[in-house]
Amino acid sequence: MSKSVFHRLALSVACAGLLSGWGGAASAQDAVTRQPVHVTLLQVNDVYQIAPVDKGQAGGLARVATLRQQIRAENPHTFLVLAGDTLSPSIASSLFQGQQMVAVWNQAGLDIATLGNHEFDFGDDVLLQRLKESRFAWVVANVGDRATGKPFGDLPPYIIKEVEGVKIGFFGLLTPDTEHASHPGANVVFQDPIYTACETVNKMRRDGVDIIVAVTHLPMGEDKRLARSLNHSVALVMGGHEHTLLESAAAGTPIFKMGSDARNLGRIDLFIDPDTHQLDSMDWQVIPVDAKVPEDPTVAATVKTYEDQINAKLGQVIGSTGVALDALQKTNRSQETNLGDFVADVYRSKMGADVGLINGGSIRSNATFDAGPLTRRDVLTFLPFGNQVVKVSVTGATLKKALENGVSRLGDEEAGRFPQVSGLQFTYDGLKPAGSRVLRVSVGGKPLVDSKTYTLATIAYLIGGGDDYLMLKDAKVLVNPEEAPLDSDLVQAAIVQAKTIAPKVDSRIVRQDNAKPTAAPTASKPPKKAK
Q: Is the same domain home to 202 and 298?
């Protein structure tokens, strides 16, 4: 979808006056001359950074605040909406547990937000505290508290904004995958989003809501299923979870996703008939949030306060890289990368294992780190979760199942399971059915033996079954999470020891679709162990 271009959806409206005879002529004339009720919705989703990203060229909540003010000056009926994921992960959140996000959103003028899966990364208590600090409304309909039987945090399933007599309702939905993808407490219940949406929309209709907007943190496939199930009951879906700019529709309902980290601001203009309170037409535009947009000085000052604290704590140089490090989401979740190789090598070396494995989704920032100095902040930026690196014993058959799982959802950028590996090489055919894609595996340069036992260095999240690595849940634990070092600590120590790193991809992961088999490359040599 091209940026800075308006799109329009014109909705069919029955010409009641023409169908009911001459008596309707006067009211039809009134309908022509009366101005529609104009409401502007501004959308962002999956925003983890308060400061600009991409070397300062994109994003930044001080710029978002400026755009909101400019657009609100044009139309006072403007609402800024966040479709989930903001409290984590980021280097700042590892220090402030999302407090910085709420503080800046409060200043930037956020109006409505729904929960994303990463809102639960620090557990229920921290999330509840962030909710109390928020001066904007959180809405979610399908997350409950098993202990009380009430909505989680007593959050409303929807809120209503009345504009010139028109009632506009916003309801929120969160992916049930949050139960496994984050750290909600045992009493947090995630209900089916589609069933819940149907119930919620019926309640909203009974409350007299005229225009209904779904604010969701669901995969696009679920958003489409939602739109089809609701059958024109919602005007649009403002979605999150995917980190790419997406525009789609299902059953005539538009679905928008604005990428990540406020690189884009979606502007959606609703024009509503003042008499019938029905949506007459809709315009939408993707506005780049770039360096051309001036920063709101008040918001920028708050951002600087947090940035100064981060730099004071984490700004010291620990080494350097001689090559650019690839921390991009798309590559780390689909193919071998030099940063994925380096991190997996560190796991294997520091834990003394035969094999190292990290899921690509654990490598964050969606950025490239240029050759040059590396700081503690850099490491915590691409490894922000504080994952414990454990050591387990698995059979060759289990290891192959893990690799099969890793390549089972190719092309789905939101699936973080793609494996970055060390100590092994594998070849797969991405066109074969999931579960039978891995063609060959070698460990230490020798073919994998199903019955042989291998040691594996990986993260506690995966041996707990995260990203569907369920086959690792029964692995024999040699170094448990309680005794395990953090991934960022191990990587920092490796950079300090090496002084300069220069990882390169070496064909340890080969995609070979419908090609003749070739000899498997020799596995890369393990890095030297710390003395």
A: yes
